[in-house]
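Example record

The entry below shows one chain as it appears in the dataset: sequence first, then structure tokens.
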Amino acid sequence: MPSALTATELRSTGIEHGLDSIGFAKVEAFTSTKNHLVERKKQGLHGGMQFTYRNPERSTDPSRTLEGAQTLVVGARSYWRKRPEAENSQEPVGRVALYALEDHYQQLRNGLEAIVQILDHHGFNSRILIDDNALVDREAAYRAGIGWYGKNTNLLLPDRGSWFVLGSVITNANFPPDIPNNGSCGTCERCIPACPTQAITAPGVLDANRCLAWLLQSEGQFPIEFREALGDRIYGCDDCQISCPPNRREERMQENFVSESFSAPVLIHEMLEMSDEELMQKYGRWYIPRRDPRYLRRNALVVLGNTSRASSRRARKILEQYLESDDNMIRSHAVWAAKRLKFEGLLEKLKDDPSPLVQEELHRKVTGNK
């Protein structure tokens, strides 16, 4: 490795371009992580999630991504910003997880690309790995000494918590690895009872079948047992992080920073009135199963059914439209929302509906929300 290029130079460059923490790890197989993925998938805890579960052999072996790779340069970027106050509106507003309110992954990529440019200049090969199936980001960050695993399964940075997106540069340059962080949550378990669906089944173990953030990204019916717990969440869930004491430090550090690039509030009535093209144009940056806008509609109908601020006339008109949908899944969720909002009179015309999904909802006892 040329003497002119040092780990210190790469760290300084990354920080200058917006990264908050940078660490170095040796390129080697994440054997323990692969075993965890295989075992938890065998137990059904993946809930159909693909991501790093799809091909554990690949996602836990960074050497498969770049021939001759020696080092992972791992970066973290904070995404906590003070959430703007929602304007007083008669229309229900969907809550979005903080990381998805602006494109923090692009900002993370910008910092990593600055590192790649230096590596390229010195004749090394490199590739950026961010939010895909090629690598388990948290394990790379742990091995690079950036943080430790919290009991909510997130990676916690020392004195700053888990409000961070993670990504790596894999390169054939050889740098000394950092020592993994030996921090821990100690006796704190606040995140476990804070989860609205008890998805954290044990410290460090997440059952994706119960995780609202994953269920919003899953195909098929939204599970009936978790619909009320979904509340106003339209994308993601931050509850286990909101309850995490170390995150208070990051929030204090950023409390005066109000982002001007946050996406506009998600207005549920408006969302349900959009065309497929409009939905994908506005929300296409989210992970949407099969890139099919019907899942955005499904989720919005559940949120509509949970709101106590629905404008009755407008909500009724929307539900009338969705109860006539050709899509059995959408029609069945509209039945649930109509019952929650006490619009049972709209359901008379569906009593002979041929869909088992719709009939199941028609005969289901649902507690009203108004």
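Notes for this example: The mean pLDDT is 92. The chain is about 35% helix and 10% strand.
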